[in-house]
Inverse folding.
């Protein structure tokens, strides 16, 4: 199928008029299913198969993009004409160059063992029913659910600069969650992470590795225990974040802040700007010397992994922060050229065929530290709080002031985990918070975690990204703010 | 462009299906132009048609969807839905009560404008130019978006439903910003693009950009004036947390045990009113149930929650769908009100609301609001694009943006006054298929707004 589609795209781009300084066409075909078992019954079984072509052109400095679900030469030509008409109707825009790129050629696909879309629905339901049943048993659990999702995305891309490539990515994930209620008290527990589970660019073996049914009794018991647990105290404390919460902390207070389009004010009316400016690159102290962050689209298993981004820029690894000092930003071809970079960081990504590429995260991760295992880190910590699994999140439009809540906290007493505390929260200011980082667990505790719901862009785009993280320790953090 | 209408596509898919079936066809045509630093940045035109086929077996639903419209694709999609419903049904009887039955024509509405549906890029260009000119007059830069959409929805079921609805919508957002990063914000939405005045909108945004040193407030509680954009966002969260019939039936809703009791100030009357003159109307929900007004809070008393077919069946006790399904078969998180209307009060404007406040906060909009604790309707978020200190009854100085952590129901309980004028407010976020909706609401003054932090330089 890829060759005829690629031919369709290259033919369409070849027909772009000479007044058009750049043109690209991208075909995206997505097959996905999502199965949810809730409160002992199948809640929904959804399967989705959508495809279409998006054409983007540049005339002078103006961009136009038009999408069509029809995969015929006439429809793609009509989309090209519509994109041109839109680009040409706009008020004048600066016609800066795009960062150069080697034309993308060939095919890329991610590795996997068991095709998740080939796993039978019966097998998926059996796994989910077993996990969900193990969550129930206490009347205070008012909602119990087990969910899995599987997805295959095939893309083809051609540009007026000679790109002609195809890609295939397979993804899946699964999770369990409960809501426990007693009077006015409501508590939530999830596994392996909140907000729909930890997806990966991997086969069904990724889901089997979660052992959902094995973890379900613990998750349910913790939700019940939280109903009567003492509240997390307010004040300042040493905090150890689990990998799941640290992944979201990286996402919100580093990943988004380092999107170059935000720094250049391109997202000021919606997603916001950044406390970081382009002039800060290479000089700004972002955090402590323990802080090493990289964006790596070549990581196996990452939801932000690919062969080429959606502008045809080859996947790469970019150190963003080294020893606490800001080194680089996430960029696409236009934003990179705007500040004089020699190349894009390969972060242009689009959500499906009907959206145009914008600057997005790939896999933005903290590098493993040298603090050993979580047990080693707790032993070294002595007294503090261990915060686990995100429950609420919010950060200002410059990615500076944040407030997070987690599903649970545990006291750290005498270097070990102690009693459970309910409704924990913490807040901070981004550079001060990251400057308080003094230990990151070692590679043995480092894992890649998927986030499938990163919102940005107008019209809205949901992007799937991953973050590698290990438990990490922060000193003198404000807790109990909510 | 396919000459076949959405309803004709739905009927064709229904013939290709097997057993109890609902086919929902949505055709979106839309245009969205973004701008930043007083220049166009991105423009997106979409023309797409999606077909969702819901199969029902023994109380279980399964949905398969596609945007390929040939017979083979529709037949394969229907087969996927049927196979999935059968697999679900093998686990025992489900709780879905069955597809909607025909019950006459849904109420007519005036939510479609032919001129808007033309999606003329010249209209977008003119709106952008107007915003750029106004910003330049004030020595500011303009940022924002102009968008228009034409969405048709058709439903055909094996129970005999044959429904078609067509709505248009237009949305414009303007943010004006000075060299120091001070910004002001204004939005407008309507069913017709001609109802939006880009120049007036940009002037409104520019007027919010205030020079001078930033005042600061520490954590604490303060009297607050919330403009409609802030009120509307809080009410959208309230709709999900308190008025979802499924959340209520599961005992996790914020009105669990509180229906019939006072939950807000007497000045608060909140309805879901799909035919209200300021809202974006729709004829029926995603299960084909006609939209009808529902009173949610009346003079401070919680009166009802909303239902789709499935949540009503789970709730029992005579509950019926109120026409609030957000997807065929109902969302896993339950139904939700999408035409909220908060009654206005007596105040002429925000300045009059502020007149009784000795020291407080004036909020233009809220940002990145999220739920902290569901049953308490406790939310957290930031102020943005126009936050001011109120001193001695006057909106006096720009204020550093603050973080609030407060309960929506507590704020409504502490509401002292509202403006007469209601505005249709929306964030204009079009994730997935375009579903334009908003809240028609006034500005309000409330006591005890809880501030838990502030941003930094």
């Amino acid at each position: 199928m890829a060759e005829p589609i690629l031919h369709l795209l290259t033919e369409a781009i070849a027909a772009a008029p000479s007044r058009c300084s750049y043109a690209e066409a991208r075909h995206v075909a997505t097959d996905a299913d999502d199965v949810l078992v809730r409160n002992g019954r199948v809640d929904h079984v959804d399967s989705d198969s959508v495809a279409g072509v998006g054409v983007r052109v540049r005339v002078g400095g103006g961009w136009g993009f038009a999408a069509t679900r029809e995969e015929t030469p006439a429809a793609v030509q009509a989309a090209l004409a519509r994109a041109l008409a839109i680009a040409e109707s706009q008020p004048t825009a600066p016609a800066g160059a795009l960062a150069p790129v080697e034309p993308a050629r060939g095919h890329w696909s991610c590795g996997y063992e068991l095709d998740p879309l080939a796993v039978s629905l019966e097998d998926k339901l059996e796994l989910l029913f077993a996990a969900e049943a193990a969550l129930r048993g206490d009347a205070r659990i008012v909602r119990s659910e087990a969910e899995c999702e599987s997805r295959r995305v095939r893309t083809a891309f051609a540009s007026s600069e000679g790109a002609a490539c195809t890609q295939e990515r397979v993804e899946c994930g699964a999770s369990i969650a409960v809501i426990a209620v007693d009077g006015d008290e409501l508590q939530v527990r999830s596994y392996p992470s909140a907000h729909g589970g930890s997806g990966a660019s991997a086969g069904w073996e990724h889901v089997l590795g979660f052992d959902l049914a094995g973890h379900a009794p613990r998750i349910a018991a913790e939700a019940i225990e939280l109903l009567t647990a003492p509240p997390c105290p307010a004040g300042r404390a040493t905090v150890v974040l689990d990998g799941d919460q640290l992944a979201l902390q990286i996402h919100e207070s580093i990943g988004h802040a380092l999107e170059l389009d935000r720094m250049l004010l391109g997202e000021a009316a919606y997603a916001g700007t950044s406390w970081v400016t382009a002039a800060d690159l290479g000089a700004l102290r972002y955090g402590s010397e323990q802080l090493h962050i990289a964006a790596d689209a070549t990581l196996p298993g990452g939801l932000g992994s690919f062969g080429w981004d959606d502008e045809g820029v080859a996947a790469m690894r970019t150190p963003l922060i080294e020893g606490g000092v800001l080194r680089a930003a996430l960029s696409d071809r236009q934003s990179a050229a705007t500040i004089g970079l020699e190349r894009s960081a390969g972060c242009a990504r689009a959500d499906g065929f009907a959206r145009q590429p914008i600057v997005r995260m790939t896999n933005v991760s903290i590098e493993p530290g040298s603090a050993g295992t979580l047990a080693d880190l707790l032993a070294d910590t002595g007294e503090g709080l261990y915060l686990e699994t995100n429950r609420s999140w919010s950060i200002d439009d410059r990615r500076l002031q944040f407030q997070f809540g987690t599903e649970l906290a545990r006291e750290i007493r005498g270097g070990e985990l102690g009693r459970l505390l309910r409704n924990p929260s913490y807040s901070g200011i981004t550079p001060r918070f990251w400057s308080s980082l003094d230990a990151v667990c070692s590679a043995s505790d480092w894992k890649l975690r998927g986030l499938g719901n990163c919102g940005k862009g107008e019209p809205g785009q949901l992007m799937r990204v991953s973050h590698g993280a290990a438990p990490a320790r922060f000193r003198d953090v404000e807790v109990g703010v909510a | 462009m396919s000459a076949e209408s959405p309803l004709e596509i739905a009927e064709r898919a229904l013939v290709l299906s097997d057993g109890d079936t609902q086919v929902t066809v949505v055709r979106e045509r839309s245009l969205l132009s973004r701008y930043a630093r007083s220049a166009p940045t991105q423009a997106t035109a979409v023309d797409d048609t999606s077909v969702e086929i819901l199969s029902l077996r023994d109380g279980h639903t399964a949905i398969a969807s596609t945007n390929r419209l040939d017979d083979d694709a529709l037949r394969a999609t229907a087969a996927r839905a049927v196979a999935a419903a059968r697999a679900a049904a093998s686990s025992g009887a489900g709780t879905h009560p069955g597809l909607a039955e025909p019950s006459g024509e849904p109420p007519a509405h005036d939510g479609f404008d032919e001129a808007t549906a033309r999606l003329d890029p010249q209209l977008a260009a003119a709106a952008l130019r107007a915003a750029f000119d106004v910003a330049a007059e004030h020595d500011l830069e303009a940022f924002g978006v102009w968008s228009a959409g034409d969405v048709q929805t058709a439903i055909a079921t094996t129970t005999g439903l044959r429904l078609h609805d067509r709505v248009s919508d237009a949305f414009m957002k303007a943010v004006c910003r000075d060299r120091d990063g001070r910004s002001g914000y204004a939005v407008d939405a309507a069913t017709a693009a001609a109802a939006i005045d880009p120049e007036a909108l940009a002037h409104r945004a520019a007027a919010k950009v205030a020079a001078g040193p930033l005042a600061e407030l520490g954590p604490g509680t303060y009297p607050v004036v919330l403009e409609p954009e802030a009120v509307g966002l809080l009410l959208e969260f309230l709709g999900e947390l308190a008025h979802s019939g499924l959340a209520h039936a599961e005992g996790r809703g914020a009105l669990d045990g509180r229906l019939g009791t006072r939950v807000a100030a007497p000045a608060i009357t909140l309805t879901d009113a799909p035919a209200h003159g300021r809202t974006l109307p729709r004829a029926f929900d995603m299960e084909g149930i006609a939209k009808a007004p529902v009173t949610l809070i009346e003079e401070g008393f919680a009166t009802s929650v909303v239902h789709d077919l499935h949540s009503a069946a789970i709730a029992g006790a005579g509950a019926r769908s109120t026409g609030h399904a957000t997807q065929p078969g109902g969302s896993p998180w339950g139904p939700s009100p999408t035409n909220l209307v908060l009654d206005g009060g007596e105040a002429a404007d925000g300045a009059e609301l502020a007149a009784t406040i000795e020291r407080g906060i004036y909020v233009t909009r809220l940002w990145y609001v999220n739920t902290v604790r569901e049953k308490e309707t406790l939310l957290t978020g930031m102020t943005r694009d126009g936050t001011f200190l109120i001193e001695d009854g006057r909106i006096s100085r720009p204020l550093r943006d603050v973080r609030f952590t407060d309960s929506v129901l507590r704020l409504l309980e502490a509401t002292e006054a509202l403006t007469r004028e209601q505005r249709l407010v929306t964030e204009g976020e079009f994730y997935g298929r375009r579903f334009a909706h908003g809240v028609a609401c006034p500005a309000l003054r409330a006591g005890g707004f809880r501030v838990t932090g502030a941003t930094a330089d």
